[in-house]
Amino acid sequence: NAGVMQNPRHLVRRRGQEARLRCSPMKGHSHVYWYRQLPEEGLKFMVYLQKENIIDESGMPKERFSAEFPKEGPSILRIQQVVRGDSAAYFCASSHTGSTEKLFFGSGTQLSVL
Amino acid sequence: GIQVEQSPPDLILQEGANSTLRCNFSDSVNNLQWFHQNPWGQLINLFYIPSGTKQNGRLSATTVATERYSLLYISSSQTTDSGVYFCAVKGGAAGNKLTFGGGTRVLVKP
Questions:
Q1: Burial class of B5 by CB neighbour count within 10 A (0 to 12, 13 to 18, 19+)
Q2: Contacts of B98 in chain A (CB under 8 A)
Q3: H-helix or E-strand containing A77?
Q4: Peptide bond into B39 cis (omega under 30)
Q5: What distance in Å separates residue B70's CA from the closest CA in chain A?
Q6: Across residues B27-39, what is the average pLDDT?
Q7: Candidates A31, A44, A103, partner chain B, best to mutate (most B CBs within 10 A)
Q8: How far apart are the C-alpha atoms of A35 and A106, rounded to whole Å?
Q9: Are A91 and A35 in contact (CB under 8 A)?
Q10: Staple B47 to which of A27, A38, B23, B34, CB 3.0 to 4.6 Å?
Q11: A58-82 pLDDT, tens digit each
């Protein structure tokens, strides 16, 4: 029973390029959350999705960032025209149902912007 | 939104020692979880504990929801317990998202 799978583990981009981060939730889970962690800091909520729906994107920057969780396939966090300040670890988590459930995290994607 | 404060921010332990980590939160919650982030960055779910007490091996946790705090106990600490411990809660007006505290960084020395 595979856990939450994120890829790539490490992603290097130059300023202005696009970054695509993928997350496959645990089998049977239909709720996905994305978090960002800056060095030496806690995790900051970005977005909460269910299949084909964005439920809460209150933590996502209004520009350059978007997320989706299609009916088939992984959830994607997309960052357009990356800047150095986007360098961080991006974690995905999944749960079976909504708010009263344990979250299981993937291993994260470390994004480095040169 | 809901505020989560963890203390102490840093903790250095000698192997075999016991310790208590605290998490205070500013509003009623329907979900509280403790996580351990190991030195490789992996986040492991330790407890789902919106109220009451649970034990798992050398770790135990207690949440007193009416007084808005939770405690994580580490007994007979081992070097593998090193890392950052995060408390995270859902509740209040922003019920969709799990809000994390700043963490307690633990170093267990041999």
A1: middle
A2: 33, 45, 93, 103
A3: strand A75-79
A4: no
A5: 16
A6: 93
A7: A103
A8: 11
A9: yes
A10: B34
A11: 999 999 999 999 999 999 999 999 9
